[in-house]
Write a structure and sequence with these properties.
This protein is an alpha+beta fold. The protein has a domain at 30-272. The chain is 11% helix and 22% strand.
């Protein structure tokens, strides 16, 4: 029997679909990379945090996977692995938090080469020690890990759900990509050099010494994975990238300059709209944290924006913004002193996409 085809009842399916607003995208299959070192152990439930809130993050993709490798092999990726962003490749450093008995006999962090558990410094044939720098390189040379946004909450180890099938602390993880202004403590010399109006990018460009060591962060160290710098602060291009584009012609320098500009643009994440003085304590040693100086400062050292909060009496030991911290916001304690003993907060208008 011939079917009748009615006119005017056809259904059109445009090649377009909206799924979310995109301010804090929820990406299917996203997980924290299983080889990330444990940054902190959350005190209430003893759960391992691998990416602290405030870290700029990206995903290991097809450009990176060949370079995420150990001494004798590489990891086969089947999911979207979230890692700290960096405008150059970087190594990772494990600590005592990563040995197998930290969370019980099932072990925890996956060793990057054989994908077995990190057992500790005495492991026979181990290429990673309990507190030593590994040879794991995250991000292809000249590519790095392109930023997608900033972690707005602590991100926990993805192997929790694998090791304990009845426990999944964080079924969905995400990050802030755009349309918000955030405050972050200025920790590195590069961040303290950022001024209002500067476009900001992920740090590390042109460096060959980047490492992710979250358990023992040296907050004053120059250039850090997952942190910021002003775009105008970049003066040295990636030497290896320049070598790739060097030609025996008069246009070689121009080609390099164009390529460098395009690459830098991939790592821009927003603009500084405000730089806030938190405290002014001339006796502070440069690059020491505000947390290490807070017992010595008085409310007179704290800027007027925060000093009034120091009138509020707070319970000692809870690190609340109030009398115990002289009014300093608790989350700003990791800001570090500049050469004049000043501590800063940056307000960043996020535009990572």
């Amino acid at each position: 029997m011939a079917y009748r085809i009615p006119r005017g009842y056809a259904v059109r399916h445009p090649a377009y679909q909206e799924i979310m607003e995109g301010q804090r995208p929820t990406i299917k299959g996203l997980r924290a990379a299983p080889y990330l070192p444990v940054a902190e152990i959350e005190p209430r439930h003893d759960d391992p945090i691998v990416i602290p809130a405030g870290t700029w993050v990206g995903v290991v993709n097809a450009d990176n996977t060949a370079s995420v490798q150990g001494v004798t092999g590489s990891i086969a990726f089947t999911k979207m692995d979230l890692v700290p962003a960096c405008s150059h490749w970087y190594t990772v450093t494990y600590s005592a938090n990563d040995i197998s008995d930290t969370f019980g006999t099932l072990g925890n962090v996956r060793e990057y080469d054989t994908y077995s558990y990190v057992l500790g410094a005495s492991q026979t044939g181990a290429t990673v020690t309990a507190a030593g720098a590994s040879t794991l390189k995250v991000g292809q040379t000249g590519v790095g890990i392109k930023p997608l946004g900033i972690a707005y909450t602590d991100i926990y180890a993805s192997w929790l759900a694998d090791a304990y099938t009845n426990y999944d602390r964080q079924p969905v993880i995400g990050f802030l990509s755009q349309m918000q202004v955030v405050q972050v403590p200025a920790q590195t010399p590069q961040e303290k050099a950022i001024e209002v109006g500067d476009k900001v990018m992920i740090d590390g460009y042109g460096s060959n010494t980047m490492t992710w060591a979250p358990a023992t962060p040296n907050t004053g160290v120059s250039e850090r994975v997952g942190r910021l710098r002003a775009v105008t602060d970049v003066t040295t291009g990636d030497v290896q990238t320049q070598a790739e584009f060097t030609e025996a012609t008069g246009s070689a320098a121009a080609i390099v300059a164009v390529v460098e500009a395009l690459k830098i643009n991939e790592f821009v994440v927003g603009k500084c709209v405000r730089k806030i003085l938190v405290a002014d304590y001339a006796s502070a040693t440069e690059n020491t944290t505000l947390a290490s100086n807070v017992s010595s400062i008085t409310r007179s050292n704290v800027s007027s924006e925060f000093s009034d909060a120091g009138r509020v009496q707070t319970v000692p030991g809870l690190s609340l913004q109030g009398s115990g911290l002289q009014g300093v916001p608790a989350w700003a304690r990791t800001s570090t002193a500049d050469s004049a003993g000043k501590f800063w907060i940056l307000e960043i208008s996020v535009a990572a996409v």
